[in-house]
Specification:
globular; Rossmann fold; about 30% helix
Length: about 240
């Protein structure tokens, strides 16, 4: 009888197989923010067999986090989120998966050696900086956000349009404390960010689509957006394979 393989159902997928599993196993993914989006996303990535997961978050677990931040329990209230998350993720991960926990705000060096990034933050300044750094370094970025009953996400890949092509001027979004948020909507967006990261690691993500999810109506809408030649962020970024800037 063959030995059990925890990734057997993934290996059976068309376009995945042993090569896809090897790519995930060799990859390092950075998750910035281990809250409502980062919890489900990180959990799905370690269970998929991503070789190294780097978590960055400066916050501690609060009681009002628990309805949507699925890696935590009441016993974790007051603990650094990255420590509690890493403990759960290591228990769920397969052999060969490393979870790195960084209890602090994001720093540029956190991108070193990274193959894909998930922006799961709720701070506009960090979002803008992280986005610009990923574009400049040519690192795929899976971005997501939630507000009330609604969520949205998009992926930025090297050579493709970036978020400033979509929104030329950065802006602030209302906080969850002000407008509320539903845990199932957060989980939906976080799962899509994890899926986008997997596609990017497999070379199957093209970017250029903003997805809009209305949890109350149960609908999903896709909005395609092009690269803008005059974009302040990506106009001078390297286009893969062109050798030009």
């Amino acid at each position: 009888m063959d030995a059990p393989d925890r990734f057997a159902r993934q290996r059976a997928l068309a376009g995945f197989s042993d090569d896809g599993q090897a790519r995930l196993g060799a990859a390092t993914v950075l998750v910035v923010g281990v809250g409502a989006l980062g919890c489900p996303a990180a959990d799905l990535l370690v269970r998929a067999g991503v070789g190294r997961l780097r978590l960055v978050d400066h916050d501690a677990v609060g009681l009002d986090n628990l309805h949507r931040q699925t890696l935590y329990a009441e016993a974790d209230v007051g603990r650094p989120k990255v420590d509690a998350a890493a403990e759960r993720l290591r228990a769920a991960a397969g052999a060969g998966v490393t979870v790195e926990a960084l209890h602090r705000t994001f720093q540029e060096g956190d991108l070193d050696g990274v193959d894909a990034v998930l922006d799961c933050t709720d701070d506009s300044g960090t979002r803008d900086w992280l986005h610009a750094l990923c574009v400049a370094r040519g690192v795929p970025l899976a971005w997501g956000a939630v507000e009330g009953w609604e969520g949205q996400w998009a992926t930025v890949v090297p050579g493709g349009p970036c978020l400033r092509c979509l929104w030329p001027a950065p802006g602030d979004a209302p906080s969850c404390a002000d407008v509320g948020v539903l845990g199932a909507v957060s989980a939906t967006v976080g799962a899509q960010q994890a899926l986008a990261a997997v596609r990017a690691l497999l070379g199957q993500e093209s970017g250029g689509t903003l997805w809009l999810h209305d949890g109350r109506a149960g609908t999903f809408d896709a909005v395609r957006f092009p690269r803008r030649p005059e974009c302040a962020v990506c106009a001078d970024a390297t286009v893969p394979g062109s050798g030009a800037r």
